[in-house]
Write a sequence for this structure.
């Protein structure tokens, strides 16, 4: 780097300051006659010239050190300057170098801490906003930007979160109030419910942050609570009707029909049907509860889907024959090891019993129920697709997405008449979820419905074992 140029004005000023006492002495000597005026002026000029020559490189060194210190203060990476007289400024240069080294270490530590903090904030699952006194966003994490895409640094919270209750609570906290919680909803793109926490920091941060706004998504929690409430209400309703029938029939048998043999036979038959209906409902409730507890523990045993389907169709063929229906099983490559899956044999039997039983119940008399199994690719993965297709009246399109809800029925009266509990497809859905598969439902009104279960084929290791 070139040496700094010493301005004439600066050099002249320094020479003047240094020569001021000398000039004063020369003037005194001239005044008292000790020194002729010409000699005094000549001596002063020579001294100024010599002092200028001596001071100029020192001033250049000082200017170079000043530039070096200025660059260090502006975080410019550079080497210390080469000095003309290092022995005179070595200590000053050493101090600046030590300061620069300490600054670099501190800067590196602060940068790493800031990077770690930013990483932690971005990994938080809940949306987080750091706000200043003006309610502007100082920082927002990735979760916050996913929920509110416009939540960038410098924008006012009101521009991205247009909820009067949250903004009012935030203003009260920013004005020195206690922390607050506010429930609110975001209607788009999908309706979601949030709980907002607004808290004031004990002391303002160096970046201007004075408060933290955190959002907690309670959509699923509320949905689960509502599902539980609906489930209890529906289960109570489903049990209430057969219980009321049983109680009424018992009262009749104990009262007016005590000695009526014909009435007794009739009422006992009704009571038997209602008792079986209650038993089916309780069995399905217990089964669903057990399956839900296991849903997040995928099975690890290898089972043959071909064998399961053969057992289920053999079991349900007599039921189909009562309606003059043909239950047809078509397994493509049933001896192929690829038709083996990691599964719970009992639960998979329950899946196909429920689906085929529904096909028999809702299929037309003298119709066909076709059960097919074949290997398929879906979204780049290998699956076994098992389809149960019936020839029924079909299901209107608006009902298809809700069929797997608990107690949901397209035709409640007909379902109860056929002995359905409203839980069969919910059980199927949860079992398929446990097996990391998928359930696809299609239907054409007037022609029939098809329920397809996709079960993943396990990858094979080099020694030919499932993994």
């Amino acid at each position: 780097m070139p040496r700094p140029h010493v301005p004439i004005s600066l050099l002249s000023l320094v020479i003047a300051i240094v020569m001021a006492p000398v000039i004063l002495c020369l003037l005194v000597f001239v005044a008292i006659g000790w020194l002729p005026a010409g000699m005094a002026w000549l001596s002063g000029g020579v001294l100024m010239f010599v002092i200028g020559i001596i001071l100029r490189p020192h001033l250049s060194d000082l200017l170079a050190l000043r530039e070096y210190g200025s660059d260090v203060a502006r975080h410019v990476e550079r080497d210390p300057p080469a000095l003309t007289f290092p022995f005179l400024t070595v200590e000053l240069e050493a101090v600046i170098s030590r300061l620069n080294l300490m600054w670099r270490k501190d800067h590196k530590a602060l940068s790493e801490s800031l990077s770690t903090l930013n990483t932690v904030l971005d990994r938080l699952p809940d949306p987080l906003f750091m706000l200043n006194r003006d309610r502007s966003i100082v920082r927002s994490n990735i979760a916050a930007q996913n929920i509110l895409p416009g939540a960038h640094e410098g924008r006012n919270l009101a521009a991205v979160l247009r909820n009067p209750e949250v903004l009012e609570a935030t203003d009260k906290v920013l004005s020195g109030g206690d922390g607050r919680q506010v429930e609110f909803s975001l209607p788009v793109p999908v309706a979601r419910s949030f709980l907002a926490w607004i808290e004031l920091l004990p002391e303002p941060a160096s970046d201007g942050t004075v408060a933290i706004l955190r959002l907690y998504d309670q959509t699923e929690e509320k949905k689960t609570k509502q599902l539980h409430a609906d489930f209890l209400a529906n289960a109570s309703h489903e049990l209430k009707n057969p219980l009321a029938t049983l109680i009424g029939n018992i009262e009749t048998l104990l009262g007016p029909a005590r000695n009526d043999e014909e009435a007794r036979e009739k009422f006992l038959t009704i009571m038997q049907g209602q008792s079986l209906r209650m038993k089916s409902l309780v069995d399905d409730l217990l089964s669903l509860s057990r399956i839900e507890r296991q849903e997040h523990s995928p099975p690890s045993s290898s089972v043959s889907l071909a064998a399961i389907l053969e057992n289920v169709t053999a079991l349900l063929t007599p039921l189909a024959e009562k309606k003059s229906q043909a239950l047809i099983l078509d397994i493509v490559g049933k001896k192929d090891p690829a038709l083996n899956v990691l599964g719970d044999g009992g639960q998979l039997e329950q899946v196909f019993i429920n689906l085929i039983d529904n096909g028999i119940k809702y299929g037309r008399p003298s119709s066909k129920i076709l059960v097919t199994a074949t290997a398929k690719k879906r979204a780049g993965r290998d699956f076994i697709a098992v389809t149960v297709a019936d020839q029924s009246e079909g299901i209107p399109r608006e009902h298809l997405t809700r069929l797997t809800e608990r107690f949901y029925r397209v035709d409640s009266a007909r379902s109860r008449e056929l002995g359905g509990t409203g839980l069969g497809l919910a059980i199927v859905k949860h079992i398929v979820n446990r097996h990391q598969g998928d359930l696809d439902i299609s239907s054409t009104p007037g022609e029939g419905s098809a329920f397809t279960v996709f079960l993943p084929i396990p990858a094979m290791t080099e020694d030919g074992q499932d993994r």
Observations:
- The chain has a mean pLDDT of 81.
- The chain has four domains: 8-106, 125-217, 223-294, 302-456.
